[in-house]
Amino acid sequence: MKTKTIRKKNRFASVGLLCALFASAAAFAGADVEIEIDEEDRCPVCAMRVILYPTFAASAELSDGRKFKFCSNGCLIRSLLHPEAFLGVERKDIAKAWVQDYFTGRRIDGYTAVWVWGSDVIGPMGPEPVPLASEKDLKAFQRRHGAKTVFDLKELTPEKWEEITGQKETGGQ
User: What does each of the 173 residues of the chain score in pLDDT, given as a tens digit?
Assistant: First the structure.
């Protein structure tokens, strides 16, 4: 009788250990990690304190490991369109763009996110471009918030941004 009880306890311990290993492996791989912001972080585009807008915070990571934090997705996009002006680097030096999925708040790759513009979502800088984790979230978002345009960050240029938003993107000039 004691042997069975010990085996059951060992099975539960093994399952628990496996779950912990998978969870730590996912965290190590960067999955489901929040965008870390500190009290000192200032948006390189508008100089706003990022910590005041945690729901809209985004970040860019350079190939040399440096990280920049942004108060909003709009400021991140401006810096990606004109990295020379806002980050002091060329576009090829930007390794990653991290944003928060609108529905879950989880960190997702900005280059693989589904982006929408023209919804009722207002961020710290006004109307906000919104990242979604997947196409399946798009219909739900459109029903709730509207969306005039869906776009891909990888294909975005200053000209395309102006076409989508009606805002001429000058790179801080």
Answer: 444 433 444 444 444 433 333 333 333 344 446 789 999 999 999 999 999 999 999 999 999 999 999 999 999 999 999 999 999 999 999 999 999 999 999 999 999 999 999 999 999 999 999 999 999 999 999 999 999 999 999 999 999 999 999 888 776 65
- Alpha helices (H) in the chain, listed in sequence order: 2-28, 73-81, 83-86, 136-145, 158-165
- DSSP 8-state symbol, 49: B
| Structure token digits, residue 56 | 């809209």
Sheet containing 58-62, strands listed edge to edge, beginning at the edge strand earlier in sequence? 67-70, 58-62, 94-100, 107-109
Is residue 101 helix, strand or coil? coil
